[in-house]
Amino acid sequence: MSHISDAIRKLREELPSGVTLVAVSKFHPVEAVIEAYGAGQRVFGESRPQELYSKIQALQSMQEDFSDVEWHFIGHLQTNKLKLVLPYVSMVESVDSLHLLSAIEHWGAANGKDVQVLLEYHIASEDTKQGFSREEILTLLTGDAATGHFPHVRIRGLMGMATFTDDESVVRNDFARLMSLYEEIVALKESGIYKDVLKDFDTRSFGMTHDYRIAVEMGADMVRIGTLIFGERVYF
Length: 236
Fold this sequence. Notes:
- There is one protein chain.
- Helix 2 (about 30-40) links the parallel strand 1 and strand 2 (about 45).
- With about 240 residues, the chain is an alpha/beta fold.
- About 40% of the residues are buried.
- Helix content is about 40%, strand content about 15%.
- The chain has an eight-stranded parallel sheet with strand order 7-6-5-4-3-2-1-8.
- The chain has a single domain (about 5-230), classed as TIM Barrel.
- The two termini are about 25 Å apart.
């Protein structure tokens, strides 16, 4: 059994049944995706529009049917790259600005498609990471989103990345902030005040190769794992 197949098997045995594994295939060739597919993996994460598009085209050119692959976009998405991403993905996990959310709504309206998204919450200490603040997310959900500005966007939940550190207490504090905001939003949903915009709100995507066990323990129902499955990045 290959490293990829073995890693996927072990993860499937370890992760609780309610946790979705997103195999982060960015910076790895399409052959690695095919190998993971053969091991039963169906959800993959990509962060570069052109790389995502080229892998989809490669899979579509093959005789084998890969139509049950589910793609998630997990990187910073520029609005001029939407046409390479939105027709093909089942979810954009990394909506990090009102500008991007508005562009996705415009694309959805023009193409007659609803787009599932997660709002990226900036929980890490690094300024280089993208994302909304807590206040920005609450303002969005109780303001523009609640008043129907985004009818072609289905806001499914929150995504976040913890500070990259070996200090477990820092990681736990970061994840705790995400869970606290998630629970606050769920309380708004259950109150019925914002039931329309929050009707699909049910997803917490956090945790990667180095911290996914902590994430699952703290309530993540979607984890994004790349290096553990595919090894170190391969640039091509």
